[in-house]
Design a protein that fits this description.
By secondary structure, the protein is mainly alpha-helical. It has one domain: Orthogonal Bundle (Arc Repressor Mutant, subunit A). It contains seven helices and two strands, in the order H-H-H-H-H-E-E-H-H. It has helices spanning about 5-10, 10-30, 40-50, 55-65, 70-80, 100-120, 125-145; strands spanning about 85-90, 95-100. It is elongated. The mean pLDDT is about 90.
Length: about 150
């Protein structure tokens, strides 16, 4: 065993990094079945959950904390694959609204199942522990946002 191992095993940052990589690899493998990556899946789910409410590229940027460029790129790819459409806002011709196509709706409902299955795996540690863990992650996020 390398000397670094004893450090990385105790390192909170390294363990968060390792967990992130493991979760992303698991998600990526499942999401590939629908031809989307993690960010694209979040975009699809945002439009899906908002239903008839107006969803714009900027509302996705704000809600998910993503960069404009990553949202723009994801929207272009999703539109090119026939999963979303951009429509002019009927009330404001300067604004675009995002809507799911039938394929996009179908994929989004299946992607929800992927998220739910992974959440069920996490719940094996117990709902109270999982809630504590989630709150701890939020607290870490707040610390880093303030830096």
């Amino acid at each position: 065993m390398m000397k670094i191992s004893s450090y990385t095993e105790r390192s909170t940052i390294f363990q968060m990094y390792r967990l992130n990589n493991t979760v992303q690899a698991t998600f990526s493998a499942e999401l590939r079945k629908y031809g989307v990556n993690f960010i694209q899946s979040l975009v699809l789910l945002t439009i899906y959950f908002e239903g008839k409410n107006k969803v714009t590229p900027m509302s996705i940027v704000r809600e998910l904390g993503l960069s404009k460029s990553s949202v723009s790129q994801s929207l272009s790819e999703l539109e090119g694959r026939g999963k979303i459409k951009r429509r002019m806002d009927e009330k404001d011709a300067r604004s675009l609204c995002l809507v799911l196509t039938a394929e996009g709706k179908s994929d989004a409902s299946k992607i929800i199942g992927i998220y739910e299955n992974l959440e069920k795996k996490l719940e094996k540690i117990g709902k109270a522990k999982l809630e504590d863990f989630t709150n701890t992650l939020k607290n870490f996020g707040t610390l880093f946002e303030k830096s």
